[in-house]
Amino acid sequence: MGAKYALYENPNPKGDGKKQPLHARIVPKGTIHTQEIAEEIADSCGYSTAITKGMLDALAKVISKNLRRGYTVELDDLGSFSISLKCRPVMDKKELRSWSVRFGNVHFKGSKKLKQQLGPIDLERDSEAAATHYVPEQRKGRMLNAMEEKEYFTAAQYMRLNGCNRSTAVRDLNELIEDGKIKKLGYGKAVLYVPVNRKEEHE
């Protein structure tokens, strides 16, 4: 069975209510986790699921270790992993100290072979999905991704990014606060939304 897609309307950058072009996006069926991947590999190659899962866990640790050491990690038939950094903008390198440079995100670039394997993908229009704007999880994900480059977001910026109204933006942002993904600074019109770092998530 092939993947399903639906048509989505691009967010309106001007917020003037004018209809925007549609583009196709995959309709997610769910998430496949390590255990399920291990079971599929075990079925195809004869290894036990436990051994296969152990190897996948070990692979994740080796990738993480080498990324922390500054390497790009390339898996020939899959693609390469690298990391980006974040720091405040400065005009002079003397203004920046190493302690203020921090981890940004992990980036994955698919290999040529992986892209060739995905090229003949079977696609089917999702008949139950009408042309629509971004769904809540997509809106939230777009902001969290954008926060990798920005230190903060405002409700107005969220609205422009996702082409939604203020009540939708505030509802989404409050849900992200409840989920521990962001926190709110300030009051009234001066409210800023900033990401919660990993240390804060576990405190």
TrEMBL record:
Residues 1-125 form the HU domain. Keywords: DNA-binding. This is Histone-like DNA-binding protein. It comes from the Bacteria. Transmembrane segments: none annotated. It comes from Parabacteroides faecis. The keyword DNA damage does not apply.
